[in-house]
Amino acid sequence: MYSMTETQVQLQDSAKRYFSRNSDTLTGRRNLGGFSKQWEEFTEMGWMAAPVTEILGGYGGAAELALISREIGYAGCEFSFIHAAVIPGIVISQLDNTPFQKETLEAIFSGDRLIYSPLVEQFVGGRSMVTCIENDTHFQLSGTVSTLPGASYATDFCVLAQSGQGVGNDAGYSLFIVPADSEGLRADTENAIDGRLLQTITFSDVKLDEKQRLSSAATESVIQSSINAAVLAQCADLVGCTQKMFDLTKDYLQIRKQFGSSLAEFQALRHRLADMYAELCLANAMLKRAVDKYAEDPVDSHSISAAKYSIANAAKYVGTQAIQLHGAIAMTEEYELGRYFKRAIIAEKTFGDPYFHLHRFKAT
Questions:
Q1: Whole-angstrom Cα distance, residue 161 to residue 140?
Q2: pTM of this prediction?
């Protein structure tokens, strides 16, 4: 993907080996045991700490979370690394040094708690959909957050709730850790087009005490850098997914024969494959630039939005070409290309579609 340190090469190799040995990650959605196994193994390999710097007990940063996310996308893994590790890790690590910060991060790294964060769904495209009312003895949360993949397995939710009516630093955002079994919290499940389970989380006057509030002043910079980290990880996931669709197509053209020759020998098809490869190279280049720029300035969304726009369009092009070059087999449930293309379509619309990021790019 780009020039890597020795540690990053080892991280990438370990991820490749893990996913090559564990093809059952593709069907983890079908039972709780599948997701539980992935969560446990991600924790054992230290991946839950990858987005957080060494100062706070992690070991990584932008490059590391991108490397892991890319391999997740290539494998088609359905455990939501972004919601369970990237977003909560980034947002909690940027808070003031509160007594609960270290304790919560350690719980994520050790696997004691699976903390999901819907922060990006809350803020991309509009205001926070969760509000907070402060009483003398407790806080009361109300609102709805939709389309969280795999959220039914979370032990807690890391939620930003808005108490003010302003915007930016005047909006009055507080960060809460909400236990999944809290009274008034409901999760409704539906199926995504690729078979993954999506949850809509509803907070109906959920009561929380002061110990469950991690911060009373989550700033705009904390929110924007967390959103950028999530979009960056998703871009890496999408690049991995695009690489897989390209590899499947290249292999298929080499083994499928027509008129006594493999399809890879037909010049017109080779040219189409070359066009797909060019789009893949563009996607990798945009990802590298986004990783570098995020490492320099996590709040700057210019390169992040440019990457999402370019990579989503590249994935869609490669996916449609892959289906055409495969023919009817690509439309079957049994062949894996269809699942990867559906994954790409969902990723295109998640955390802001290409047109949202085009406007975000122009505004920065």
A1: 10
A2: 0.91
Sites in the chain below the pLDDT cut of 70: 1-2, 23-36, 97-98, 125-128, 164-171, 257, 263-264
Domain span at residue 124 reads 115-218
Distance of CA 18 to the CA centre of its chain: 19
pLDDT tens track for 129-178: 788 888 888 899 999 888 788 787 889 999 988 876 544 444 578 889 99
Same domain, 170 and 280: no
Neighbours of 124 (CB within 10 A): 17
Q: How far apart are the C-alpha atoms of 253 and 331, rounded to whole Å?
A: 16
**Model confidence over 174-209: pLDDT tens digits?**
889 999 999 999 989 888 888 788 888 999 999 999
Instruction: Please indicate, yes or no, whether residues 256 and 320 belong to a single structural domain of this protein.
Output: yes
* CA distances from residue 72 to 20, 259, 343, 364 in whole angstroms, order as listed: 11, 38, 12, 30
> Which tokens is 233 given?
């990880």
Q: How far apart are the first and last CA of the chain?
A: 26
Kindly state whether residues 342 and 355 are assigned to the same domain: yes
User: Considering its fold, how many domains does the chain have in total?
Assistant: 3
Residue 118, both tokens: 């819907």
